[in-house]
Amino acid sequence: MNTLEQLRSGQLIGAKRLQLVEHLSTFPDEIFTLADTLEVLDLSNNNLSDLPDEFACLTKLKRVFLSFNQFVHIPPVLAKCPALIMIAFKGNQISKFAEHCLPITTQWLILTDNQLEQLPESFGELTQLRKLALAGNQLTTLPNSMQQCQALELVRLSANNLTHIDDWLFELPKLSWLAFAGNDFNRAQSLHNVALAKVQLGEFSLIEQIGEGASGIIHLANWQGQEVALKLFKGAITSDGYPLDEVNCCLQAGVHSNLIKVLAYIDNPAQLGLVMELINKDYQNLGLPPSLETCTRDTFAEHTQFTAQAIKHIAKQMVSTLAHLHANNVSHGDVYAHNTMINNACTVLFGDFGAATNLDSLTDYQRLQMQRIEVRAIGCLIDDLLSVCADDTSDKTQLITLARQCMNANITQRPTFASLKHDLTL
Which residue numbers delimit the Protein kinase domain (predicted)? Predict the structure, then answer.
């Protein structure tokens, strides 16, 4: 975190990164003294509503964070920024998205939790776009030009007002992580098909917080004489969508040996929650989330290393789990190493249904395409794990081949879950 005082005194000359949280209502001109070096600018959590025309003189700027401000439009000056690849406007009040107001270099666009009713037809110009977050808006349709965004890998469309999704979205050649729960055509109104016990929050004695995600806080709790993990959802909407849709997908997923076991649920107007089996402390996250540099691909702690045999064992369990989910008409939407837990024997536990989608409302063709999208995510997962594999074995050669097949740009040529499971047993 930096200060205006540091900036004005010249202490930050030559800085590549700048973060200011100072209740700003106007853009500080002093930022332009960093024009020759500034690459990352974070002015989130202020009161800004516009950017000056001079903003384009920040010619080295790659990433700008303007989340949780007062913007009602996307400033067109952004289109003049030659190096800009990442733009974040989460949690503003943006309702105006003019034609041609973003640079064609944009790779990562975050517009979560705004008031957008439509995207411009010029959106298709963003052919380098890889990551797109639009959950929590008021979109009723997507522009047909968006099918030109052939580099898209991750798309978040949950909690909008979409009445349907066109086939072309499911046919984007690099799409691997797609979420669209909570729209007009598939939004859950209540919990359904619930075979588990409904319980009350008062039945639990909370011990301590043990985790937190986009949608909720996980507590270690005592319930009926046993320790459990209790996930309490934060509110009406999260960065991935509505909690009710997440809970429904989690319950619809059913039981599988590699899914974190759900024991019961809480459902009342004031609080949604899931009661889950406590994960043994032997388990740890398989990987770390993507970085600003990797954009869509996971990272790993320094010195992480897996054998090809271990990766193969992990992949086989993940394929089995995803096959089970899709058999129950649920897509996970977030198949990543950082959402996967393993123990020393590389036994997998998989969970976090924040980006999951109920596929019941899709056509047979679209459900098949969703499977192919998540097969590509498996390919990315294997490929990421191979980046920390030092082996030179036949197993590694096979995994390289399988990853390439899963990521085939010709979607219809990708393997099925069944064929992957078979190949991974060889």
Answer: 204-426
For residue 193, what pLDDT band results from cuts at 50, 70 and 90? low
pTM, whole model, 2 decimals? 0.96
The class (CATH top level) of 1-152 is alpha beta
Q: Which residues are CB-contacts of 273 (< 8 A; sequence separation ≥ 6)?
A: 201, 216, 230, 231, 232, 233, 265, 266
How far apart, in whole angstroms, are the C-alpha atoms of residue 170 and residue 414?
14
| Record: fold of 284-423 | Transferase(Phosphotransferase); domain 1 (1.10.510)
Q: pLDDT confidence of 423, banded at 50, 70, 90?
A: very high
231 labeled binding residue:
yes
Query: What pLDDT, on the 0 to 100 scale, is given for residue 188?
Result: 84
Could you tell me if 252 and 262 are in contact, meaning their C-beta atoms sit under 8 angstroms apart? no
177-192 tens-digit pLDDT: 999 999 999 988 887 7
Per-domain residue ranges for the chain?
1-152, 197-277, 284-423
* Dihedral over Cα of 316, 319, 325, 328: its sign: negative
Residue 387: count other Cβ atoms within 10 Å of its Cβ. Answer: 12
| Distance separating alpha carbons of residues 209 and 326, to the nearest angstrom | 32
Cα(first)–Cα(last) distance of the chain, in Å?
A: 52
Q: Which fold does the domain 197-277 belong to in CATH?
A: Phosphorylase Kinase; domain 1 (3.30.200)
CA angle 110, 113, 118 (to 5 degrees): 80
For residue 229, report the phi and psi dihedrals to the nearest 5 degrees. -100, 120
What tokens does 351 get?
């969970």
Cα–Cα distance for residue pair 110/302, rounded to 1 Å: 28
Burial 182-193 (b: 16+ CB within 10 A, else e): bbeebbbeebee
Q: Is 115:136 a contact under the CB 8 Å cutoff? A: no
pLDDT-based confidence at 235, cuts 50/70/90? confident
